[in-house]
Amino acid sequence: MSPTNLAVPLLIIFFYLSFISSQAALPLQTPIQKDHSTSQYVITAYLRTPLKLTKLLLDLGATYTWVNCDDYTSSTYRHVPCNSSVANLLGAYACLDLCDGAPSPNCGNNSFILFPDNPIKPVDYKKVNGVNTAIIDSFALSSTTQGSLALINSFIFSCARTGFLKGLAKGVSGLAALGRSNVSIPVQLNKLYTSYPNCFAICLSGSKSQPGVAHFGSRGPYNFLPGIDLSKSLLYTPLISNPFGKDSDPDKPRASPDYYIGLSSIKVNGKMVALNKSLLAIDGETGSGGTKISTVVPYTKLQSSIYKTFITAFLKEAASSAFNLTTTKPVKPFRVCYPASAVKSTQTGPAVPIIDLVLDRQEVVWKIFGSNSMVRITKNSVDLWCLGFVDGGVNPMVSSWIRGPSVVIGGHQLEDNMLQFDLQSKKLGFSSSILSRGTNCASFKFSTKHV
Ligand SMILES: *[C@@H]1O[C@H](CO)[C@@H](O)[C@H](O)[C@H]1NC(C)=O
Ligand SMILES: *[C@@H]1O[C@H](CO)[C@@H](O)[C@H](O)[C@H]1NC(C)=O
Ligand SMILES: *[C@@H]1O[C@H](CO)[C@@H](O)[C@H](O)[C@H]1NC(C)=O
Ligand SMILES: *[C@@H]1O[C@H](CO)[C@@H](O)[C@H](O)[C@H]1NC(C)=O
Ligand SMILES: *[C@@H]1O[C@H](CO)[C@@H](O)[C@H](O)[C@H]1NC(C)=O
């Protein structure tokens, strides 16, 4: 669905609003649009009463959704009382006992307080005035195939100040949390629509005009043109929990909201890359290391020593007679680029050595073909294909005592791949590039039945 024809379903949404709250609206398919100036993935939700269209940054690694409340009006919002059962779901944070000002989303007595963060530009709390209260209000996602909304009357999220929006795509006023938590969007949907699987899936599109899709409450079918059900072509690997999230204290670990998977080795053109295996495991004392999946990092980040070994292996294989590629002056942030004219093209993008992410077993392999490994750079009279992986440093700190993962699989590597997060079975279903099956994430069969 293009932005221009969003207006029609929106009118219909308001018209039918009074009929939908009792209607089972799962499974639900909702579009995910890429913002090209920031490489962020954005979903459209509806919040408040009356419902208002609200664009949110899609974040697979966030605990709770947050929305700018500095201009928030709604006839139905409520604060979360401290020490309430909802507050317990959110974990121990802080309480605003007394607020002197006029009652508003940011001001209420006995209101539970949260500490939202912006994954693009971390927030300096010293520079952002005021507290961020937890809020309960109406939230909905459009279900494009059924012409209805999946409405959550008592959706739990956090307020945030305008200063939290720095670095987010134009028009975005908050963040949609899909992370591992008690209050992520899929978990709150699942609590309401209990007969549907506790499972969601995303298929990100890099297209400027056509969105990709998120599925909630379904293990399939995921029907794409021309008649392909991608739920039938998934491989599965366990979703791993990192017990040390960035909100951990030395005496009180808090699990990370990120989805980790068990990367055991990397191959380039079928050849094993010699890596320090201890970096691929999650350290049992600090949470450092391991491999997570992120929709807010545009290109896969590799720990410095992994990155160096990996690009050396890639350069060698790309120079071999099968590819015969000679590098040219790279364009930042990339370090390995080839003239586009020297690279042949295939159904799965530029012809370059295939990268295999070998997961929990030798036969469970996430294959990265040229369309996901390479980035086309056409500017300032250059036309290049660059290896779209970046040096992530040496497990930088993510909080005062927690270090980050060794591998962060980023957005460019996720596009045109189907990823299914089965929260019940705690496993990831993945397809590798669906271009090899003759479809792509923008070819989801959004029904236009309701228009
Ligand atoms: C919440 O519980 C804490 C500790 O049990 C207590 O000190 C505080 O007064 C309680 N707050 C409210 C609003 O009941
Ligand atoms: C989820 O909720 C339970 C209480 O229902 C709480 O004990 C647990 O700490 C919560 N998990 C997280 C990650 O906040
Ligand atoms: C909080 O309680 C105090 C004292 O009861 C009251 O004066 C104040 O207006 C209340 N604040 C809000 C935001 O309701
Ligand atoms: C492998 O990585 C671990 C963790 O960073 C480090 O302690 C160890 O020295 C490394 N081993 C080698 C051989 O580089
Ligand atoms: C490899 O490429 C170079 C130029 O980049 C060319 O001269 C050479 O003939 C090519 N070799 C093969 C085997 O294609």
UniProtKB/TrEMBL annotation:
<dbReference type="GO" id="GO:0004190">
    <property type="term" value="F:aspartic-type endopeptidase activity"/>
</dbReference>
<dbReference type="InterPro" id="IPR001461">
    <property type="entry name" value="Aspartic_peptidase_A1"/>
</dbReference>
<dbReference type="InterPro" id="IPR021109">
    <property type="entry name" value="Peptidase_aspartic_dom_sf"/>
</dbReference>
<feature type="domain" description="Peptidase A1">
    <location>
        <begin position="41"/>
        <end position="431"/>
    </location>
</feature>
<dbReference type="InterPro" id="IPR032861">
    <property type="entry name" value="TAXi_N"/>
</dbReference>
<keyword id="KW-0732">Signal</keyword>
<feature type="signal peptide">
    <location>
        <begin position="1"/>
        <end position="24"/>
    </location>
</feature>
<keyword id="KW-0964">Secreted</keyword>
<dbReference type="Pfam" id="PF14541">
    <property type="entry name" value="TAXi_C"/>
</dbReference>
<dbReference type="InterPro" id="IPR032799">
    <property type="entry name" value="TAXi_C"/>
</dbReference>
<dbReference type="GO" id="GO:0005576">
    <property type="term" value="C:extracellular region"/>
</dbReference>
<dbReference type="GO" id="GO:0006508">
    <property type="term" value="P:proteolysis"/>
</dbReference>
<comment type="similarity">
    <text>Belongs to the peptidase A1 family.</text>
</comment>
<dbReference type="InterPro" id="IPR033868">
    <property type="entry name" value="Xylanase_inhibitor_I-like"/>
</dbReference>
<dbReference type="InterPro" id="IPR033121">
    <property type="entry name" value="PEPTIDASE_A1"/>
</dbReference>
<dbReference type="Pfam" id="PF14543">
    <property type="entry name" value="TAXi_N"/>
</dbReference>
<protein>
    <recommendedName>
        <fullName>Peptidase A1 domain-containing protein</fullName>
    </recommendedName>
</protein>
